[in-house]
Amino acid sequence: MKPLTEQEIRAAFVNCTKGEVKRLAVPRDLAERPWDDLDYLGWRDPQAPDRAYLVAELDGGPQAVALRCPSPAGWQMRRSMCSFCLTAHTGGVSLMVARKAGKAGQQGNSVGGYICNDLACSLYVRGKKEAGAGARLHESLTLEEKIQRTVANLAAFIEKVTA
Ligand SMILES: [Zn+2]
Questions:
Q1: Which one of 39, 50, 131, 142 has the fewest CB atoms closer than 10 angstroms to its CB?
Q2: How far is the CA of 72 from the centre of ligand 1 (A)?
């Protein structure tokens, strides 16, 4: 994806109030992120372990989602699979929950998905980060197809948040 600035990221949040957007933690090292290898940028708030965020460049421009996730103390040590990148980790995937955008969100509706705790799906798909033996399925898909699938899964998740 193309690099985004802090302003672009803050402007992209679909499920936060203006006040929340102003206060939420955007990484300070944006310039050093491996944008060329990212299908989305995901990060956790170092000050608030139950918060995670992701931003993706979709058809209509960047869209960002705020997520609630279990803090590391609550991570389950069983093996589960990320719904975006289909990497199976032991203790490396959590159910993250996004409040829905707009009225539906105000009424308490949310969307959940199992997502890599470190939100590094793009790097697992590309083999740039290892999740241990047996973490990735042996598939006949090309890297390009796996990337497309990850993006499609991610886009479907964001669509559910904004629907
Ligand atoms: Zn993943």
A1: 142
A2: 16
**59: confidence class by pLDDT, cuts 50, 70, 90:** confident
User: Which residues face 110 on adjacent strands?
Assistant: 99
Q: How far is ligand 1, taken at its centre, from the CA of residue 87, in Å?
A: 6
Cα 143 to ligand 1 centroid, rounded to whole Å: 15
104 CA distance to ligand 1 middle (Å): 26
> Ligand 1 centroid vs 99 CA: distance in angstroms?
20
Q: Give the pTM.
A: 0.93
Dist. CA 16 → ligand 1 center (Å)? 23
**pLDDT for the residue numbered 45:** 93
Phi, psi (degrees; rounded to nearest 5) at 20:
-65, -40
Out of 11-20, 65-74, 90-99, least confident range: 65-74
Helical ranges in 84-142 per DSSP H: 102-106, 121-125
CA pair distance 3, 30, nearest whole angstrom? 8
SS3 143: helix
* Between 163 and 79, the higher pLDDT residue: 163
Q: How many CA atoms lie within 13 A of 1 on its CB side?
A: 25
